[in-house]
Amino acid sequence: MDKMKVWGSLFRCSSASVFFPRLLVFIRVCHTTNSASQEIIISNLVLNYSGPQQTLYQALEATGIEWTPGLVDSVMKRLWNHGPKALLFFESFYYRPGYTHCPSSFDLAIDIAARLRDNKKVWSFISCLRKCGFSPSPRTFAIICERYASFGKPHRAVKLFLSMHHHNCPQTLSSFNTILDILCKSKHVQLAVSLFKTFKRKFSPDVITYNIIANGWCIVKKTSNAMEVLTEMVEVGLVPTIATYNLLVKGFFRAGQVTQGYKFFIQMGERGGNAKPDVVTYTTVIHGLGVNGNTSKARKVFRMMIRDGCLPSVATYNVLIQVLCKKDTVENAIKIFEDMVQRGYTPNIITYNIVIRGLCHVGHFDRAMEFIEKMKAGDRSAPSVQTFNILIRYLCDAGELEKAFEVFHGMSKGCCLPNLDTYNVLISGSFTVKKAEWMVEAGKLLVDMVERGFLPRKYQLHSCPCFLSIDSLSFFWLSTSLVVAADSTIVEAPCCRPHMSSWNFLEVHVLLLWRWFNKLWFIFIIETNFHL
């Protein structure tokens, strides 16, 4: 029996006489495969499982696998883009006597629950963490704070940081830098500056602290403020590092101040010492010049760095290939790619993704697929969800929806779960076509993404019913399925009851159903009677 097909039919049966023989086959497969294969098989088993946690635990226990924290973490990472299933797998171990999740597993579960905006479950996991004899670490709080900030709730992130000591995790300079970095990268720079000014006497800011604030101003394209931070840094007796200068160079180019950025780069070379350009500096300048359309000057800087004895990195080649794809020709970019390989550099997944995007942009989908096959053949650069998203996006733009859906369905078979971007691209592509059959597919995708814990965009919830109004039966199925899907994401565990955010999410779909039900009910009755 094909090993990779065992999991596919394992849980699709309800009869015990069928279930247990298949389970025994699965056990043999698990014991005759390596660690990586076990991760894939277990992940697929969980994805195809539908039932209570206790039954899943019994099935996992029956495999006889020696469960280690590393294996659990690896499986959860594979299930990352299916949050409810990942949490189902994590919580199934509550039923196993003697097994205690390690802090890294709890952090993964907390991150997934926070991504699902399940605040109650987040704190339930923290409670379980304490019961297992651990205390929340600075990393745990950083995970939650980052989710709060990304969801537009930076003040909740700050409040959590200020309460860390209540959870037996005192604030340190490192955790202070972390919260500042989270706020700055989520573009809440003013709040980060206020926090910095309030607590700088308590935590004695270091170079990293000032770099974070300067980088925050660069992110929001206020380079003059970033330069003021550099001045203040010197005034308090701190010596700027090459990282400080590099983020300022990047800030100038990000703000579109190409002349100032290049001038600052030249001044760094003249100054020397801590300001002497390194590989990151050259890479930043090449990218900055290239994306602003000056590819000839970017290539000149590339030659300059080699002349100055600074060897380019894979990242340097990546940005050069990227700017040539965007501002020059794909053929010239591929020449650089080939030159990179000839010089002994190993392309990484980012390199391949850049080339694939460039080929797709000019409509060379067959050549893009050739590069994807090269990635599959390699050991270090297997295609990621971002790789497939690039291909799906350009296929949708070209009107090749059938091929886009083929790639989409092939992702799961290859153990690469689609993420939120995948669904958004396919649903948007289906809306663009404005044909009934593709709108039904879009509806199925909406249901599928909700089942996986992803929140649809507002325009998707409004647009899909508009197009499906010509087929009230399809819309009735869609709305009802959305309610069922939202309800199915509510998973109970011994220490985790259904949470308010899940019920609020369910309520949204109930209201959506009611809003359109009145409008389409009359058509629904007529069509039903007509078919009768």
TrEMBL record:
PPR repeats lie at residues 206-240, 241-275, 278-312, 313-347, 348-382, 384-418. Pfam families: PPR, PPR_1, PPR_2. It comes from the Eukaryota. InterPro entries: PPR-containing_protein, PPR_rpt, TPR-like_helical_dom_sf. Keywords: Repeat. Belongs to the PPR family. P subfamily. This is Pentatricopeptide repeat-containing protein. It comes from Aristolochia fimbriata (White veined hardy Dutchman's pipe vine).
